[in-house]
Amino acid sequence: MKFTATILLLAAATSNAFMPQATPFMRTNTVALNAEVTVASIKELRGLTGAGMMDCKKALIETEGDVEAAIENMRTSGQLKAAKKAAKVAAEGQIIIKSDDDGAVLVEVNCQTDFVAKDGSFLAFAGKVADFAIADKPTIEELKEKFEEDRVALVAKIGENIEVRRVQYVEGEQCSTYIHNGGKIGVVVAGSGDDQVLKNMCMHVCASAPQFLSPSDVADEVIEKERKIQIEVAMNEGKPEDIAEKMVAGRMRKFAGEIALKGQPFVMEPKKSVEEVLKEKKSDITSFIRLEVGEGIVKDDGPSFAEEVAAMAGGNK
């Protein structure tokens, strides 16, 4: 009987030796996305470069989690240049004005926040761009190409999208310039006569935002478009079409003057037009430019960081 029990125990032990052993359960770190890549490191790289979540993850996997090496690789591969398309809209920034004996230049350089718009590194970059513009008179495409490497490096340093957006030139031996609200609006007026008068005209342009120099410069199609809009507004208010047209005819006689600099009431003497003030002061204006930071840009903050993490997690299923 003992012999039989011994044989059975020996058979059971031999059988267990050849059965697959269960692997002990171990909880993995749910934050880790790779051996050296975590959500925290992806967020850090994204903040430094403005690149998308998946681009940051890929770059960190290639460098085994080394953020500095990932930035360098993204710079050399051109990924940072493309990253601006996925970054938040750069609608803040500065208008920089530089002048010489032949005229002046206005340059708009954008960033994402008002805080960075006041940063020393950002202002130094914007000033450098404007200095080159007044010296060489490049097109906006040439200006962007010239400073692309500097721009990419600054994006990596500051952590916001930065863009050289616009450059405008004003020609004239006598130019007056005005910067409003710490660089939010920039104005250049070219003309002749009293320097203080031209400076006052800069402030008028800043406040009134004229679209044309003289009423005669307003194109017929601009006037006709406005006329149709005003007729439609009057008819929507219940006026018959013939009455609406007569009402609008009177308004349109004033319209060209309202959007042209010389026809506008002068902000410092509203009872006189700009043209009247210029004649009294024996001065004249030949051209002007007004730039305002972010005008025409549609702001869209895009998905939040949490939403991007969720989207990335969904893509990994």
What does this structure look like?
- This protein has 317 residues and is an alpha+beta fold.
- It has 14 helices and eight strands.
- The strands form three sheets. It has a three-stranded antiparallel beta sheet.
- A hairpin with a 4-residue loop joins strand 4 (175-180) and strand 5 (185-192).
- Helix 2 packs across helix 3, helix 3 packs across helix 4 and helix 11 crosses helix 12.
- The longest helix has 19 residues, at 241-259.
- It is flat and about 75 Å long.
- The relative contact order is 0.11.
- The model is unreliable at 1-32 (pLDDT under 50).
Order of helices and strands: HHHHHEEHHHHEEEHHHEEHEH
Biggest sheet layout: 3 strands, antiparallel
Q: Any idea what the radius of gyration is?
A: 33 Å
Which ranges are low-confidence, i.e. pLDDT below 50, for 5 or more consecutive residues? 1-32
Query: Distance between the terminal alpha carbons, to the nearest Å?
Result: 59 Å
Overall average pLDDT: 83
- The helix/strand class is alpha+beta
What percent of residues are in strands?
15-25%
The level of helicity is: 40-55%
Q: How many alpha or pi helices?
A: 14
**Sequence of strands across the biggest β-sheet:** 1-2-3
